Amino acid sequence: MPSGHVSHSNADHDGARAFAKHDHAQCEGHAMSQAETLVAVQRLRLTPVRRRALEILLEAHRALGAYEVLERLAEEGFGKQPPVAYRALEFLVENGLAHRIRRLNAFTACMHPGEAHVPAFLICRVCDSVAEAAGAPVRAALDDAAIALGFSVERASIEAVGLCPQCRAHTQAGGVAHG
Question: What residues have CB less than 8 Å from 81, skipping those under 6 apart?
C-alpha cells in the first residue's frame, strides 16, 4: 500500500457513504474516472479484461473472491481459466486500483486510486459489505507500538469486522440480517 502523504479529502466521507444508500452509479463513475486518469499518467495498459474486472469490483460495492470475478468475466467471454481473473486482479492491486481484503480472501475496488492513503477496511460479518475508511490514525498507532518494541513494519492491512448499519438494525430489531 502506498505510504507518504495521506489524503482525507474523500476517504473520511466515502466510508460512511459505502454503507448508506447513495447514487452508486455516480460513485462508480467517479472511481473509474480516477482509475483511467491514474492509468494514463502512469502509462499503464488497462486491457479490456482488466477494465472489466475493475468495473465488476466497482459494481459489486463489496469484496469479491477471484472466482466470483472469474465467473462474471467468463459469462462475458473473457475466458474461464483462473489466471484470467488472477492476472487482472493482481494488476489492479499492484497499481493501486483495487485492494485485497485478506480476511475474506477477496478484492474490492479502491475508492481513491492515485491518492496516497492508508485504508482501513470495515467488513460486515453478515453481508460481507466493505467500506474503505481513512486508516492513517490506526496505522500511526501501530507504527508507534512497533517502534516501542524495536519492530519495523513492512506491510500492514487494517481490517475490522462487525456489523454494517443495515445488518445491525436488523439484528437489533430481532430480524434476520440481509446478506
Answer: none
